[in-house]
Specification:
- With about 325 residues, this protein is mainly alpha-helical.
- It has one domain.
- About 65% of the residues lie in helices and about 0% in strands.
- It contains 16 helices and no strands.
- Helix 3 packs antiparallel against helix 16, helix 12 runs antiparallel to helix 13 and helix 13 runs parallel beside helix 16.
- The longest helix has about 35 residues.
- The termini are far apart.
Length: about 325
């Protein structure tokens, strides 16, 4: 073979002797994929365990719970007294009768003279408001004799209150024998609870059912309200299990499960979290906060957060009912 032939053949020989990199690339890629999969599984399992521990596993003793809850209730009642919202007329931003109803249940266990006086004065002022008088049929409240005009206004509200169907449901729960729901609301409230789409609908429907059972047992039996209560409570509990952020609806779900006597559905940790989410001014916050939730997850103080009277009386009711049954 000539020198030229050897030179021409050399690249072929070198190329023929080059290692096959594809044979090693595939195993390396597979190892990297498996590492990522294992890491994802570890993060998923670890995150789920931490979520469960943070949101559902009780971390404190009975003594801690009683002491902290008692202090939280005292501060919360002071906050409501200082805001004065339970002393205002309904037309001037005052609280609605159902709000007074649940706060009075708290005061039956934890008296606050100033707040009680504010609420009594508000009742007298609001007697001129038919919407206030309409709710005097709530269980445990003095039975107010409704006038013919009151009954007409209540019937109209139940039939036409499209913007505030929560009030419509509650009023129907109080007077199912002489009011009538709109067809769409009847289907949603009394026939197919799957039409209740979010937690606020579930909680208000639950209160309407409970009031119907107390004010008109015959209507409750007719509509199989025990079944409706069971279905709604199951959904409220399921929604709460996956909500890591304390807020108004967090407090409301716990409060109304307790009001329904569904103590077995309420985890002790949920009460602990309500206590721990109280603001420095004594109130609780209405809106969920991602920043605050993350801070709580890693054990930090989320800083100053705005309080709200609605979230506060619900938190107080939840704490009062839970500790009152311990």
């Amino acid at each position: 073979m000539t020198g030229e032939q050897m030179r021409n053949n050399r690249p072929l020989e070198v190329e023929a002797q080059a290692p096959d990199e594809s044979a090693t690339t595939t195993p390396r890629k597979r190892r990297r994929v498996w590492r990522w999969l294992v890491a994802c599984v570890i993060l998923l399992v670890g995150g789920s365990l931490y979520f469960h521990a943070f949101c559902h596993r009780s971390l404190h003793s009975d003594d801690w719970l009683r002491e902290r809850a008692g202090g939280a209730i005292t501060k919360g009642l002071d906050y409501l007294y200082e805001t004065g919202t339970f002393a205002k007329p309904a037309e001037n931003g005052g609280e609605s009768p159902p709000h007074h109803f649940f706060l009075e249940l708290v005061l039956n266990r934890h008296e606050h003279v100033g707040l009680r006086r504010q609420m009594d004065e508000a009742k007298l002022v609001n007697m001129d408001n038919w919407q206030w008088r309409a709710f005097f049929g709530m269980p445990g409240w003095p039975r107010y004799k409704l006038t013919a005009d009151d009954r007409r206004d209540i019937r109209n509200a139940v039939m036409t209150s499209k913007k505030n169907y929560y009030a419509e449901w509650l009023l129907y729960g109080l007077y199912p024998d002489w009011t009538e729901l709109r067809p769409a609301e009847r289907r949603r409230l009394l026939e197919d609870t799957s039409r209740l789409k979010h937690s606020y609908q579930l909680t208000h429907a639950l209160v309407a059912y409970l009031w119907m059972k107390e004010t008109n047992p015959a209507a409750a039996e007719k509509y199989d309200v025990d079944r409706l209560v069971r279905e709604v409570c199951e959904r409220i509990e399921d929604a709460h299990k996956w909500d890591p952020a304390t807020s108004d609806i967090y407090n409301e779900r716990v409060a109304f499960l307790l009001y329904a006597g569904q103590d077995q559905r309420v985890r002790r940790r949920w009460i602990e979290r309500i206590i721990l989410s109280q603001n420095t001014d004594g109130g609780w916050s209405y809106d969920k906060s991602i920043t605050r939730t993350i801070a709580q997850f890693i054990g930090l103080d989320a800083g100053k957060v705005k309080s709200d009277t609605h979230a506060t009386f619900l938190a107080l009711y939840a704490l009062s009912e839970y500790t009152g049954r311990m």
